[in-house]
Amino acid sequence: MAEIRQGQNEETMGRLLAALPPAPAAWVAAAAALPRTRRDADRIVALAEADQQFRVAAIRDLETALRDAGYEPSRALLETLRDRIDGPSR
């Protein structure tokens, strides 16, 4: 009996999801960019830990330090790095 209800719930959920409008293009693009943003943030944090000059430059002017290191300082990357530095409660 539980299997029947689960199947019905899945079908109902499928119908409800299909009735929703498509996600905005900006949401889709942001979601697609997340893995790269996280990888870049991991690399940048590692660079800051290993290279004191870069760390000082990043503290002074994060956007310029990222450009100088070959990264595009996108809003998502800057927010991710600032969250990792300051924590989510800033």
Please explain how this structure is put together:
With 90 residues, the protein is an all-alpha fold. The protein has one domain. The protein contains five helices and no strands. The chain has helices at 2-19, 25-50, 52-60, 62-68, 75-86. Helix 2 (25-50) packs across helix 3 (52-60) and helix 2 (25-50) crosses helix 5. The longest helix is centred in the middle third of the chain and has 26 residues, at 25-50. It is elongated and about 60 Å long. 8% of the residues are buried.
Question: Could you provide a short overview of the structure?
Answer:
By secondary structure, the protein is mainly alpha-helical.
The computed structural class is mainly alpha
User: Considering DSSP H and I runs of 4 or more, what fraction of the residues is helical?
Assistant: over 70%
Structure annotation, total helices = 5
Mean pLDDT: 89
* Rg: 21 Å
First CA to last CA: what distance? Answer: 49 Å
**SSE order:** HHHHH
SS elements, strand count? 0
Major beta sheet, specifics? none
The rough form would be described as elongated
Give the uncertain stretches in residue-range form: none
Name the beta content range: under 5%
How many domain modules?
1
